[in-house]
Write a structure and sequence with these properties.
4 helices, elongated, alpha+beta, 3 strands
């Protein structure tokens, strides 16, 4: 049974009631000074990508195995094939990210400072 939030307009306070859905309409009909207050629902769990806990190594190994079976897929790009560990893939992605940044900014370790 769900918990509903109500507002009593006569006495100016908000409260919660635990009741069956079938009794909700009857309760609102018998109490005209009460109106239902809608509150956001609570989403529990880590099913939202990027919002939950980090994946464990067993999950990463399975993704690597699937990526190896499908070498041209985005999954293979993210988790790699059978020859690369997850740490090697993360390192490669970091290197590629910084290489692109260097290409955009033109920065180089071999550049001499301009005067």
């Amino acid at each position: 049974m769900p918990t509903y939030t109500f507002y009593n307009e006569d006495e100016d306070y908000q409260y919660e009631e635990f009741m069956a859905m079938a009794k909700l309409d009857e309760y609102k009909k018998n109490n005209p000074n009460i109106r239902q207050v809608f509150t956001p629902i609570a989403i529990a769990g880590d099913h939202i990508m990027g919002a939950g806990p980090k994946t464990d190594s067993g999950f990463n190994e399975n993704m690597q195995r699937i990526g190896a079976a499908h070498p041209g897929s985005p999954l293979a790009d993210k988790f790699g094939g059978s020859t690369m560990s997850h740490q090697e893939i993360k390192t490669r992605n970091a290197i590629n990210k910084h290489a692109k940044k260097v290409e955009r900014s033109g920065w180089s370790a071999n550049k001499k400072p301009t005067k």
